[in-house]
Design a protein that fits this description.
- The complex is a heterodimer.
- In chain A, the strands form seven sheets. In chain A, strands 7-6-15-10-11 form a five-stranded mixed beta sheet. In chain A, strands 8, 9, 12, 13 and 14 form a five-stranded antiparallel beta sheet that branches.
- Chain A has two domains: 184 residues, Oxidoreductase, molybdopterin-binding domain (Sulfite Oxidase, Chain A, domain 2, Alpha-Beta Complex); 122 residues, Immunoglobulin-like (Sandwich).
- Chain A is built from eight helices and 26 strands.
- In chain A, 12% of the residues lie in helices and 30% in strands.
- The N terminus of chain A is likely disordered.
- Chain A is globular and about 75 Å long.
- The longest helix of chain A is centred in the N-terminal third of the chain and has 10 residues.
- Chain A is an alpha+beta fold.
- Chain B is mainly alpha-helical.
- Chain B has two domains: 39 residues, no CATH class; 124 residues, Cytochrome Bc1 Complex, Chain D, domain 2 (Orthogonal Bundle).
- Chain B is built from five helices and four strands; from the N terminus they run αββααααββ.
- A two-stranded antiparallel sheet of chain B has the order 2-3.
- In chain B, α2 crosses α5 and α4 crosses α5.
- Classes of the chains: A alpha+beta, B mainly alpha.
- β7 of chain A pairs antiparallel with β1 of chain B, so a sheet runs across the interface.
């Protein structure tokens, strides 16, 4: 069976080989296997492997990944020697599946390193425009009712390189790895504010961390009372030091910098504090020299994680195109995929039921015929906002702006199967 | 199956009542259902710990400084990274001059930062990066006065303190569009 015959039996969902997933699944695994096996060598008779012939080591106190997956690491660049502890590491999105980021691979962004905090000495102080300023210990917060929610966290500088003039030869992690997703557990901030008593006239909440930078951000009080919480656990275990141990403020859907790590201070005020990271940084410069300030929610966004930049397709035939989508305005309602640079689009399958402010995994089968292709994905959220093209995002800002880029990512597939970051 | 459920239910109830007992021992729960584990503290006790300075100058400490004094502190604490006159070096921000409309834009304290309070707040809490919070309040006032003077915002002999702070007019004060209520 050659490629042409194969495409005739499959229900094409869009141009250049995108296949209706439900139709393909309805054909059953036999049909899928036939298509793949037609281009594979016949397998040799297996022998029983050595690990099936002697017992392995027993249980351990704290697990570790297989030694064969040691290359699944965060992409960490060397720190700036002038400013110790500043910098970031990126989640290897293209090497992971599902939507939950393992704690050891959650992206990091630090402004003065990771403090080594003894929880017994850590304090969270709530003060400012409150009836009674209060001091909470870590133990205190553990005794409060806990709430668990699965949320993405994205740095507003994520994908900033895609605003550059030339498309660099980069992986999905290098370009977009400042987004992760975890189940966070903690105490609703509203519970603690209620106990301190909100004074009339309070409209904003300033938060600072106990790191060497004492990083501060402020958010409107109405958001703080809505869904903000003090995160104590990350995917079931105490949050990692690089995520703010023993506690961080978690602000769902909003730019990551406001989810202040190593949280030690909550101060109610009658206006924004205008910290350095709400003025000098994390503001979006416009072409006329003005700038947008307090752009908090992360825009609707998606990207294909496989195939993606610096990967290579090893064979023609069926491949699963898969990726991640999210929105700071709600849940993901739809993800479309194109294999011909946006000329035609097909709806991808969404894993599970998309929930608000969390990553969603999308998938669609793709029959690669060995020809050139440009793979793209385009998300739509429950607010009805459609992910814009790269050009549409760039048109909003000064060419120097690197924040809040959510344009469509294009991956070109060459006739050799090499996958390359391109602007298309 | 029924017995198992019952046992689980009773264990859960025990844990719950245990938690409430601990809470009650500390502070009696009030009518609003507060757990009330937070210990009261006075705002006065937070002075020296609370480093936040608001745009209206709220939170500024006692102390003062001039640009003339700040030049010496800057040479010792800042110049190695930010340059002799705040011109910056690769990887370290420029502090002086600049423009939001040049190609490329150069966003500095003078050309971009909308509030002088941010300079005080940030320098006091985070600078210098190898020894943050090591500067005295007078030294921070001196450094802020110096940076403002290098940007042509205050005179060399301007005495910056919590009272004179409101006289400082940042050039880009109206350069920002507030998106906080457009979510």
């Amino acid at each position: 069976m050659n490629n042409k015959q194969k495409t005739e039996v499959l229900d094409m969902a869009a141009g250049n080989g995108l296949i209706n997933r439900r139709h393909m699944l309805s054909l059953g695994m036999t049909s899928f296997a036939t298509v793949v096996a037609s281009e594979s060598l016949v397998a040799q008779s297996p022998s029983i492997p050595v690990w099936s012939k002697s017992p392995g080591p027993g249980a351990s106190e704290y697990g570790a990944p297989s030694r064969f997956t040691g290359d699944i690491k965060r992409l960490a660049y060397p720190a700036n020697p002038i400013a110790p502890g500043t910098g970031a590491s990126r989640t290897p999105l293209h090497l992971l599946q599902g939507t939950i980021t393992p704690n050891s691979l959650h992206f990091e962004r630090h402004h003065s390193g990771v403090p080594d905090i003894d929880p017994a000495e850590h304090r969270l102080i709530i003060h400012g425009m409150v009836r009674q300023p209060l001091v909470f210990s870590y133990e205190d917060l553990l005794a409060y009712p806990q709430t668990s929610r699965t949320y993405f966290l994205e740095c507003s500088g994520n994908s900033g390189e895609s605003t550059g003039a030339n498309a660099g030869d980069r992986s999905a992690a290098a370009l977009h790895g400042l987004v992760s997703c975890a189940q966070w557990t903690g105490v609703m901030l509203s519970t603690l504010l209620d106990e301190a008593g909100i004074a009339s006239g309070a409209t904003w909440v300033a938060a600072t961390g106990a790191d060497a930078a004492s990083l501060g951000r402020s958010i409107p009080l109405n958001k703080a009372l809505n869904d903000v919480f003090i995160a104590l656990y990350q995917n079931g275990e105490p949050i990692r030091p690089e995520q703010g141990y023993p506690m961080r403020m978690f602000v769902p859907g909003w730019e990551g910098n406001v989810s202040v790590k190593w949280l030690t201070q909550i101060k109610l005020t009658d206006g924004p504090t205008n910290f350095k990271d709400a003025t000098s940084r994390y503001t979006e410069l416009l072409a006329d020299g003005k700038a947008l300030q307090f752009t908090f929610p992360m825009g609707v966004k998606s990207l294909i994680t496989s195939p993606s930049g610096q990967m290579s397709l090893q064979r023609q035939g069926l491949h699963e195109v898969t990726g991640l989508a999210w929105s700071g305005h709600g849940a993901i309602r739809r993800v479309e995929v194109s294999a011909d640079g946006g000329a035609t689009w097909a709806d991808a399958h969404l894993d599970e039921n998309p929930t608000d402010l969390a990553l969603v995994r999308f998938r669609i089968p793709w029959q690669w015929d060995g020809g050139p292709a440009v793979l793209q994905s385009r998300a739509t959220d429950t607010a009805g906002i459609v992910q814009p093209t790269r050009e549409a995002v760039l048109a909003l800002y000064s060419p120097a702006n690197r924040y809040h880029f959510n344009g469509i990512q294009s991956w070109a597939v060459s006739t050799q199967g090499e996958v390359l970051n391109v602007y298309a | 199956m029924f017995m198992l459920k019952l046992i689980i239910h009773r264990v859960y109830a025990l844990i719950l009542s245990g938690g409430i007992l601990v809470a009650c021992a500390a502070t009696p729960a009030d009518d609003a259902g507060h757990i009330s584990l937070g210990q009261p503290i006075s705002e006065a006790d937070l002075q020296g710990w609370d480093l936040i300075v608001e745009p209206n100058g709220s939170g500024l400490p006692t102390g003062s400084g001039t640009a003339e004094q700040g030049q010496r502190v800057y040479a010792q604490q800042c110049a190695a990274c930010h340059g002799q006159q705040g011109e910056g070096i690769p990887g370290v921000p420029t502090l002086v001059g600049g423009s939001t409309t040049s190609t490329p834009p150069n966003l500095t304290v003078g050309s971009y930062w909308p509030y002088a309070s941010t300079v005080f707040d940030y320098v006091r809490r985070a600078m210098p990066p190898t020894a943050p919070k090591s500067l005295s309040n007078d030294e921070v006032y001196q450094l802020v006065a110096y940076l403002l003077n290098l940007n042509g915002i205050v005179a060399e002999d301007f005495v910056l303190d919590k009272n004179s702070f409101s006289e400082v007019q940042m050039p880009n004060r109206d350069g920002f569009i507030d998106r906080s209520q457009v979510q």
